[in-house]
Automatic annotation (TrEMBL):
InterPro entries: NA-bd_OB-fold, Primosome_PriB/ssb, ssDNA-bd. This is Single-stranded DNA-binding protein. GO terms for biological process: DNA replication. GO terms for cellular component: nucleoid. The gene is ssb. Keywords: DNA-binding. Homotetramer. Pfam families: SSB (PF00436). GO terms for molecular function: single-stranded DNA binding.
Length: 113
């Protein structure tokens, strides 16, 4: 039996310009979010739309591409893996975040948009 993989593929629009930082040691990281939309019909047959926001983190070359080419509203598709992290906030309370580490991204906007 094959092991299950932690793999995510999403198609959506950026909700903000990527926030890019250079870390000690020269490594680049970009944080941004995308919105995915699902359209469906409810029990009365009326069209409904639901938006879900996803937090993304890209490292190295992917972060540099995000910084150079992506902006709020850009349409992209990404592949990556889900990760969870936790930290203590300034009040000493444990906080949790689920995000997607981007392995690859494809820009879908037409040139000049």
């Amino acid at each position: 039996m094959n092991a299950l993989r932690n793999s995510v593929r999403l198609l959506g629009h950026l909700g903000e310009d990527p926030k890019v930082r250079k870390l000690d040691g020269g490594r680049t990281v970009a944080n941004f979010s995308i919105a995915t939309n699902e359209i469906y019909r409810d029990s009365r047959g009326e069209k409904q739309s639901e938006t879900t926001w996803h937090r993304l983190v890209a490292w190295g070359k992917q972060a540099e591409i995000a910084e150079k080419y992506l902006k709020k509203g850009s349409e992209i598709t990404i592949e990556g893996k889900l990760t969870n992290r936790s930290w203590e906030d300034k009040n000493g309370e444990k906080q949790y975040m689920t995000e997607i580490v981007v392995n690859s991204l494809l820009m879908l906007d037409k040139a000049g948009n």
